[in-house]
Specification:
- The protein has 14 helices and 15 strands.
- It is α/β, with parallel strands linked by helices.
- The chain folds into four domains: 128 residues, N Utilization Substance Protein A, Chain:P, domain 4, CATH 3.30.1480; 65 residues, OB fold (Dihydrolipoamide Acetyltransferase, E2P) (Beta Barrel), CATH 2.40.50; 57 residues, GMP Synthetase, Chain A, domain 3 (2-Layer Sandwich); 117 residues, GMP Synthetase, Chain A, domain 3 (2-Layer Sandwich).
- The strands form four sheets. A five-stranded mixed barrel has the order 5-6-7-9-8. Strands 1, 2, 3 and 4 form a four-stranded mixed sheet that branches.
- The longest helix has 28 residues.
- It is rod-shaped and about 115 Å long.
- 29% of the residues are buried.
């Protein structure tokens, strides 16, 4: 029996397009649901067959029955007399397809078939969304703050919401509904309720991806970000390298009048960014990483991943940084344990006895510009050095 299903088929086709679901999957699901309905209605469906016209959605359900003289199983057998009503040439032992009217299926069987189709549509929709957002994993996207659950934030990413946990938020950043923010997609996971997207504002890769967006040389691979260390909301250091000798990697990232780096700083709501040049020589890299402080000498042990650094006396607090931050970030950036001493401390310790001071006073960095006129005592230095060492060991 042919069944007119044009309205149903049109609706199903529109749904498949809207949800980006493969129509072949839905057709297979309908076939399976009708087989399940047969089984629920007749107790078995081993001899059932479903055909669907993919163009119109017209479907037929058949039971393959064996022609017999005496029917003992009406599901699998048909009498010779009934068989002749279908085809007069049939004989005992022949197999004949008998069409089943699906509207004769019981309510329970029909409900089960409907539920199967509905469940499959949901599964396919989740699968499509998962695959779509999985491709965005480890990328930066723009979202809109929608709601709060405790201290956690839900961010609308288009078709799905991202989950910004309190631990992935930058301290001091506050949001309100409808705020637009850029987030880094840390992970896309499957769950019973569909894809779950975990996003971050603190991940170091967020800064890297923002540079890829803002700096064409980074995006095109001319300039590489070799290393990055970050204390979210406060300061980030990145080490950059150019694959083209005619391109200054630091200058490319800074941009004309600081336009490029300032755009990223604004996106990070004022987080300071130090851009230094990468060097394969660890001593030079460590010297660069301690910027903006000047360095007199560096002795690096590549095997031990440790380095001794001497800086001018007036640069010690700048090299260490506020609460040891500059030294700590430099250690993470270079993956070296860094021991910083002033010239006086180095002499007293018997280290670096012979060096010449060739620093021009005019090049002296104003510490107030960076560290709010905070002075560091030897005790402060020792505490900062210990923090730097612990941080390096953790790395």
């Amino acid at each position: 029996m042919a069944t007119n299903t044009n309205d149903f088929w049109d609706a199903l086709t529109d749904l498949a397009k809207e949800k980006n679901i493969n129509m072949e999957v839905l057709i297979e699901t309908i076939e399976n649901s009708l087989l399940i309905a047969c089984k629920n209605n007749y107790g078995k469906a081993d001899n059932a067959e479903v055909t669907i016209d993919k163009a119109t959605g017209e479907y037929h359900v058949y039971l393959a029955k064996t022609v017999v003289d005496e029917v003992k199983d009406s599901v699998e057998e048909i009498s010779l007399t009934e068989a002749h009503n279908i085809d007069g040439k049939l004989q005992v032992g022949d197999i004949v397809k008998v069409e089943v009217k699906s509207k004769d299926f019981g309510r329970i069987a029909a409900t089960a078939a409907k539920n199967t189709i509905t469940q499959k549509i949901r599964e396919e929709e989740r699968k499509v969304l998962y695959e779509e957002y999985y491709e965005l994993q480890h990328k930066v996207v723009t979202g809109v703050v929608t709601r709060f659950s405790g201290n956690n934030i839900h961010v609308n990413l288009g078709k799905l919401e991202g989950f910004l946990a309190e631990s992935e938020q930058v301290k001091g950043e506050y949001y309100k509904p409808q705020d637009r923010i850029k987030v880094y997609i840390v992970e896309v996971k499957t769950s019973n309720k569909g894809p779950r997207i975990l996003v971050s504002r603190t991940h170091p890769e967020l800064v890297k991806k923002l540079f890829e967006e803002e700096v064409s040389e980074v995006r095109e691979g001319i300039v590489e970000i070799k290393a990055i260390s970050r204390e979210a909301g406060s300061r980030t250091k990145i080490a950059v390298w150019s694959n083209d000798e005619d391109v200054d990697p630091v200058g490319a990232c800074v941009g004309q009048n600081g336009a490029r780096v300032n755009a990223i700083v604004n996106e990070l709501r004022g987080e300071k960014i130090d851009i230094v040049e990468w060097d394969e020589n660890p001593a030079y890299l460590i010297e660069n990483a301690l910027s903006p402080a000047k360095v007199v000498a560096v002795v690096a042990d590549a095997d031990e991943k440790s380095a001794r650094v001497v800086v001018p006396d007036y640069q010690l607090s700048l090299a260490i940084g506020k609460e040891g931050q500059n030294a700590r970030l430099a250690a993470r950036l270079t993956n070296f344990k860094i021991d910083i001493k002033s010239e006086t401390q180095a002499r007293e310790a018997g280290d670096f006895l012979d060096y010449e001071e060739d620093y021009d006073d005019d090049e002296y960095y104003d510490e107030d510009e960076y560290y709010d006129d905070e002075e560091y005592t030897d005790e402060d230095y020792e505490e900062s050095e210990e923090a730097s060492e612990e941080s390096s060991e953790e790395e």
